[in-house]
Amino acid sequence: MIKRIAQTAGFSGLLAAIFLTLLQSFWVSPLILKAETYENAGASEQAEHSHEAGAAAHEHGAEAWSPEDGLQRTLFTGLGNLVVAVGFALMLAGLYTLRAPGKTWQGLLWGLGGFAVFNLAPSLGLPPEVPGTAAADLLLRQYWWIGTALATAVGLGMIAFGRNWALRILGVILLALPHLIGAPQPDVHQSLAPEALAHEFVYASLLTNALFWAALGLASAWFFSRATRNA
Amino acid sequence: MTSRTLPSSTAVTLPLSQRLTLAVVSILVGAALIYFAGFSHMELVHNAAHDTRHSAAFPCH
């Protein structure tokens, strides 16, 4: 069973990560690079790229290594995608041991669920941002993001698998709760990049992630049931 | 790995308690991977996975 989980996560994560990296390099990364030209222009005026309080360990000092633009940067983005995709796929495969998808298309539903949990719900409060966008304290936003994903996952699970109405209603409340609390917002909303670019990035990010999750859901369900047949 | 072949449901090859353990461990390991690439404050990791984070709409910067 462990082998099946590892195989499912490894293969489907790899496939989905390659797919995501391709999509990104066509649509998402060009927007990030464009936004960085505004950010760098702004940064040279301010002489610093500030990170607000509590972010002392997180400064873009000149000495910090970062991948060079071009192939190296794309490779590291692909590597980052791979780690994240295998992580998501491990979660899916773990859940499949409890509820195995009978058909490959059911993986699409799991993928949609993942998209709702890890993209849609957090994006309602913290939309995808290009570099150079003002935002609240990083830690607070990370806490809210993780809390929202957790509440959405448990809420969706209750709605989908709950045996009675009380559980389902509790699930709906859990879905709504993070948005009633509200995401941490900056004092002033401002962006160095033009508004049109920021808007396009929101669509680009959501669409690529939706396609990524569809691919990951389908691939993981296929690999998982394939491993079952061969077991 | 010993797995009995049952005709209809493949999910019954292990008792529920073991499957629960496997699910929880898988989810935790998965979450650790996502945290490392997407959320850790190590500058090196942040810079390397910068575009991954922005693209996935993880809180960044």
Automatic annotation (TrEMBL), chain A:
Membrane-spanning parts: 75-98, 105-122, 142-160, 165-181, 201-224
Supply the InterPro entries for this chain: CbtA_put
List the residue ranges forming a coiled coil, or say none: none
Top-rank taxon? Bacteria
What are the record keywords, sorted?
Membrane, Transmembrane, Transmembrane helix
A Pfam family (short name) is CbtA
* Descriptive protein name: Cobalt transporter subunit CbtA
- Which species? Pseudomonas kuykendallii
UniProtKB/TrEMBL annotation, chain B:
Q: Which UniProt keywords apply?
A: Membrane, Transmembrane, Transmembrane helix
Where, by residue number, does the polypeptide cross the bilayer?
A: 20-38
Enumerate the Pfam families for this protein. Answer: CbtB
Which NCBIfam families does the UniProt record give?
A: CbtB
Protein name, per record: Cobalt transporter subunit CbtB
Q: Which source organism?
A: Pseudomonas kuykendallii
